[in-house]
Amino acid sequence: MTGKKAATLNQRIRADLESRILSGQWEPGFRIPYEHELMEQYGCSRMTVNKVLTALAESGMIERRRRAGSFVARQPPHLEQVALEIPDIAMAVQARGHVYGYQLLERAYRLPREHVAEETALSGSEKLLAIRCLHLADGRPLALEHRLISPVGVPEVLEVNFETTAPGSWLLQNVSWTRAQHRISAWGADEAAATLLQVKPGTACLVIDRLTWRGEQPITCVRQMFLGDAYDLVARFSPGAR
Fold this sequence. Notes:
six-stranded antiparallel sheet; 29% strand; 29% helix; 242 residues; alpha+beta; 8 helices; two-stranded antiparallel ribbon
């Protein structure tokens, strides 16, 4: 795929180290291999290794201690627990026996709007990749998506062609994440959304707003508007669960 071909050695090393941390293979307090060990393992320069470790430290995933090395960070107690999964809409549609479709409606590279907190939190004063797209099932509209991705947190995203690949699917397959925040609401489709979803204005829709982080770096925020009669939100829990 385009994104994988464009991935640099720096990005591949970071993804490899992150996967070991997030999978639990390297537990909190585990000492990351020394720089010279990583240089030998990946066949790269000290500068490349240092950039990767610096990025991981800035994201909050590791701690760098002078003369002692780098260690997997111990998670602070206030971190949120993800109560809902982040679904791959394409896979979910196909799993139900339907044909998935995708249309890219708009792609822009722009500055965040200063009055929108989610946008400024995503990249500060840097530009954002803004994508508007439509998800379909059996050729009929299922959901309208507005997504912003931070090139600060995901630099390789600028090399990806989203003409045929949904951004959410690409992110789940290529970018690790550590926590997410969901806000769920019910809306009546306005005229613009109703036109794209091929329904009457005011039709009931389930709206999911999600902000996703990698360590302390927000990487993407998205608003997905699903047709109300085509999407079920299910949460599983047990007595005493938090």
